């Protein structure tokens, strides 16, 4: 049984933020109809990483959705979209603010067509920000949201988080908001609009860095590599053949570490007496740890630290985590059969429900794969009319 | 009107992942009852950043919740918890896997008490991973989830994302899952359990880095600073007095940039003919841009680039984004009156609903602030009995 069975989502989104959000809904069983321009469709179809020439980016973010083409610059295309809106529970868009209004598809207009609809908008800065005209790229959202100022090594330039967190965090908030609005509609019958911005989403994740500034000290934190703002040793360290982490917060962990290194005298060293004092003498302590760890391999270090019960871990690259026992046991990579790419591994949604299991409902659609089916089943169009639409490049 | 009105959430979580999740539910109007140990409570009460000695971390992550104390190691404490479970819709916990079962509070046991309950567990690796014994610190989840291998400057060590994304991404997924399960329960009457892990959540955010590995080329991406995997110039650059971004993907943006720099001849340069070719000659192009930009201030650079319509942005530090016109307009910082700290600014949830507005329902609770109220109203205990419980250190 699917949690979102019978929920129809009209998906006008492209690339990352919107598709990531509607993929979460599709995995929970919603019927997501992705609307693309007949010429080329979603830019994410352009393959950077590919299986058999098919874009993995697109296949992953659009798994389990139906795909139709519609030219929204043509009056008849717009009319068809409006007819589909009448039959939908949710509409999601990630155009620049103002584009939907230009199409005659602002929330008040869509609400006229379907009063109960849930209308979700994703954008760089939100629908009403004084900065809403600025470009909504992930790099810009991360740069202006503050996160880059605290990401990266000490002394290095501000660094973009190595994944498009501006997009994906916004997607997660929007999925949460849509389901919340559906629950509310179930109880009250009311629809509503939802407005989520990438900069706000990034800002909401700042936690300690923001609290430090909002606190009495008004401290503006800078980049500090991998270390904890106050505690030590909670950081990345080097072994002979790579890196590993130690994550201790207290004297118990630290004394175990000292013994594991054969350096119990450090527990008496006044530079290392408490967590906070160690935090201030991080450079000295890191050097001491390196004197020990650089003679050993990562595997040797981790074996010693595990035996000594010092919280520590390897640092996996993408292949190591993807092929790990953990990812296998959690079924976080799923084989999906795609008509062109063939069997393709895609990442699953990281939520394990006991009843309404999340699961990938099928491959991503080919461009326009379901246009006929949707126009017939949802709107009752016949073959001849559909052919005319195709000839006129409406679909 | 609140979307989650009348939803009762029993919150056994501490520090970050769980509290971040239940704060989202509280902002949507759920009644969240946070259960803490009578001695000291949630470790996050220990102030690192503080207002009037009160931990901002705790105040922010536990705003709008009720707080009760209960000693779960005492039989009577456990009995009281079970009585509260009977009256709850949702229970959320972030103990190490196995702890709830030791307390006699595994999902099957809790389901006996309340068949309709939604039981959400947050952990480092999940309830059934072969690695579930490993420490569930954010640093470890980021290290093993793969994200650190692609975060940071080229040649630098793998770098922890400068915020606790292992915790907060898991929180967002869990909040999504809980509301989805509530919607399902509304339709079917069924409760269920939810299991979300920090490593899985980080893994789900890898997108391009993971797709590159899953694709035909099996490319294991490394750290590449702020730049885009293929396109250029999409990166961080230096001006005389700081950093800024340029975010172009195409020849239109690039030719505008060349003209803005007074270097239109670069458009004919064979090293820079297309986006992908530029991506391969990033070092040369960065140097050319720096020759121009390092003579100017960030403000001057951005004024020129804005006029030339080249996508670009400043890079805000925490103070700059917190005090920006954008954050003001979006009401992303909200004044909350706290009985000890006084008026305190807290970050709001980044979703703007037209109907069921998210809003901070009140300050975080003092330790045990609502114990009496909850035991009286929910369980009908009288003053005398409550005093006995306090004397016996059950509450």
TrEMBL record, chains A, B:
Lineage of origin: Bacteria, Pseudomonadati, Thermodesulfobacteriota, Desulfobacteria, Desulfobacterales
Keyword Transport: no
InterPro entries: CoA-transferase_III_domain, CoA-Trfase_fam_III, CoA-Trfase_III_dom3_sf, CoA-Trfase_III_dom_1_sf
Taxonomy, superkingdom: Bacteria
Keyword S-adenosyl-L-methionine applies: no
Molecular function GO labels: CoA-transferase activity
Name of the featured protein: Crotonobetainyl-CoA:carnitine CoA-transferase CaiB
Keywords: Transferase
């Amino acid at each position: 049984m699917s949690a979102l069975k019978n929920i129809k989502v009209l998906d006008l989104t492209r690339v990352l933020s919107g598709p990531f959000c509607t993929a979460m809904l599709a995995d929970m069983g919603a019927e997501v109809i992705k609307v693309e321009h007949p010429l080329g469709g979603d830019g994410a179809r352009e393959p950077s990483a590919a299986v058999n020439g098919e874009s993995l980016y697109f296949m992953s973010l659009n798994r389990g959705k139906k795909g139709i083409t519609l030219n929204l610059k043509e009056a008849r295309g717009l009319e068809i979209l409006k007819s589909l809106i009448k039959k939908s529970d949710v509409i999601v868009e990630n155009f620049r603010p103002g584009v939907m209004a230009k199409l005659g598809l602002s929330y008040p207009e869509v609400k006229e067509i379907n009063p109960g609809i849930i209308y979700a908008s994703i954008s760089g800065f939100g629908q009403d920000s004084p900065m809403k005209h600025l470009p909504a790229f992930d790099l810009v959202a991360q740069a202006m949201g503050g996160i880059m100022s605290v990401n990266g090594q000490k002394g290095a330039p501000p660094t973009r988080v190595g994944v498009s967190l501006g997009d994906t965090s916004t997607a997660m908030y929007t999925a949460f908001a849509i389901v919340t609005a559906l629950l509310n509609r179930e109880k009250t019958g009311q629809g509503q609009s939802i407005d989520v911005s990438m900069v706000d989403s990034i800002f909401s994740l700042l936690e300690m860095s923001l609290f430090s500034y909002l606190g009495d000290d008004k401290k503006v934190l800078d980049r500090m590599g991998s270390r904890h703002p106050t505690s030590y040793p909670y950081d990345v360290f080097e072994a002979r053949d790579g890196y590993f982490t130690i994550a201790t917060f207290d004297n118990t962990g630290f004394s175990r570490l000292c013994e594991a290194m054969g350096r119990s005298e450090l527990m008496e060293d006044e530079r290392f007496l408490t967590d906070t004092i160690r935090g201030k003498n991080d450079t000295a302590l890191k050097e001491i740890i390196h004197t020990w760890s650089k003679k050993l391999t990562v595997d040797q270090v981790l074996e010693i630290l595990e035996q000594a019960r010092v919280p520590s871990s390897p640092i996996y690259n993408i292949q190591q985590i993807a092929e790990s026992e953990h990812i296998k046991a959690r079924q976080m990579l799923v084989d999906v059969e795609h008509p062109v790419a063939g069997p393709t591994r895609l990442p699953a949604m990281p939520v394990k429900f006991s009843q309404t299991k999340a699961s990938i409902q099928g491959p991503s659609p080919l461009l326009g794969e379901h246009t006929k089916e949707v126009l017939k089943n949802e709107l009752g169009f016949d073959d001849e009319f559909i052919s005319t639409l195709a000839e006129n490049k409406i679909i």
